[in-house]
Amino acid sequence: MENTMKRLLFPLAALLAAATVHAQEWRTTWYAAPMPSWGAEFALPTMLPAALEGQTVRETLRTSVGGEQVRVTWSNRYGKTPLVIGEARLAATQEHGTQPASFRQSGSGVALTFAGQRSVSIAPGRSATSDAVRLPVAARQRLTVSTWLPQHTPLATFHWGAQQTAFTVGGNHVAAASLSGAQALTGRAFLSAVQVRGPAQRTLVALGDSITDGNGSTPDRNRRWPDQLADQAEGVVVLNAGISGARLLSNGMGEKAIARFEHDVLAQPGVDTVIVMLGINDIGWPGSAFAPQEPPATASAMIAGYRALIAAARARQVRIVGGTLLPFEGALHGTPFAGYHSAAKDRVRHEVNQWIRNSGEFDAVIDFDQHLRDPAHPARLLPAYDSGDHLHPSDAGYAEMARAAALITKQT
């Protein structure tokens, strides 16, 4: 087993071994994959207002690596009308005890401009990145971005289930150190990336679903597994391209994997590694309230989907790591989404996992299933690693996933 693990992990570890690089380059230090909104036709609510108007949105994020200059990106990828940003500012987050700090920032922050202008109109299907500002940012530092939306702004592009509380308040308050009378948001609105300029570092992207997005982790504490990997992988940029409800083969709560692979993975500056852990929703959704009329998933179709991602990554000289799918017996039992798990669905998961482990088609493999399953009952998560819904890990489960993933950055 030890020799097998070394065979799997060594190529990627060699690639990620960090020799100091002195060139100054732009790197994405934080990312939230944009998603299209939906209406009442889907089984889950967006949990966000349909539109914002005349409001300030304040969002907090945590960097992966630091730098001397910063720029911020907003996405209107799925919008049908222009997204007008009247003003935006960036500040260090004001830490305060154990409560969400999204509505507090250190002072008034720094103004962000767009080609020298305070405001910008982002066309449908496009994004806008601010001019660079000189603001020293540390690795794993919390930052606050405040955005003034003066016009009626449909929330057509957002990020669901951010595990980070944001806030809105009427009027332009981007420079206010704290917000009075603010309303909480449980997702992200338009904010999609923060980049820093500093010593060039290698970039690893985690492409996944709600397990990568951190569902089940403690909100506002940055305990998703990519966050915890960033705590351990010194000198490696770790970006989270997880989308709750994401699927390998079909559109769900976001586009299918191959459709978003360019935007969310290959377009990241300096990307050299992607960890793919996708497919449990392809298996679980059919026949449940998520996709009641959809036929069951097959391992052969999923393997074809993985091969498409492998080919796309190799074409761009990006190494691709396969993550096995976690056990999910009892997933969502007692909810309107019962039926997500069945013995037949679990057989598909086993077949897919065996291919991921043994085919040799990925450049390396992280056996998340082996790390988190209950040895006494391998079809389910170890209770200590279960958030309670039998699908998403707990904080401790995500920590174990990060430890497993960290092996690929620490082997020499």
Question: What tags apply to this protein structure?
Answer:
hydrolase, 6-stranded antiparallel β-sheet, 412 residues, 5-stranded antiparallel β-sheet, 2 domains
Summarize the structure.
This is SGNH/GDSL hydrolase family protein. It comes from Pseudoduganella guangdongensis. With 412 residues, the protein is of the alpha+beta class.
Characterize the structure shown.
- The two termini are 18 Å apart.
- The chain has a six-stranded antiparallel sheet, with no helix packed on it. Strands 1, 5, 10, 11 and 18 form a five-stranded antiparallel sheet that branches.
- The chain folds into two domains: 2-18 and 201-410, 3-Layer(aba) Sandwich (Rossmann fold); 29-193.
- Helix 1 (2-16) crosses helix 9 (395-410), helix 4 (257-266) packs parallel to helix 6 and helix 6 (299-315) packs parallel to helix 7.
- It has helices at residues 2-16, 210-213, 225-232, 257-266, 280-284, 299-315, 343-358, 368-372, 395-410; strands at 24-31, 35-36, 51-52, 55-62, 67-75, 83-85, 87-92, 110-112, 120-122, 127-129, 133-137, 142-149, 153-154, 157-159, 166-170, 183-185, 188-189, 191-199, 202-208, 236-242, 271-277, 319-323, 364-366, 373-374, 377-381.
- The protein is 23% helix and 29% strand.
How do the strands and helices of this protein lay out in sequence?
Blueprint: H1 2-16, E1 24-31, E2 35-36, E3 51-52, E4 55-62, E5 67-75, E6 83-85, E7 87-92, E8 110-112, E9 120-122, E10 127-129, E11 133-137, E12 142-149, E13 153-154, E14 157-159, E15 166-170, E16 183-185, E17 188-189, E18 191-199, E19 202-208, H2 210-213, H3 225-232, E20 236-242, H4 257-266, E21 271-277, H5 280-284, H6 299-315, E22 319-323, H7 343-358, E23 364-366, H8 368-372, E24 373-374, E25 377-381, H9 395-410
Parallel strand pairs: 19-20, 19-21, 21-22, 22-23
Antiparallel strand pairs: 1-18, 2-14, 3-13, 4-12, 4-15, 5-10, 5-11, 5-18, 6-9, 7-8, 7-12, 14-17, 15-16, 24-25
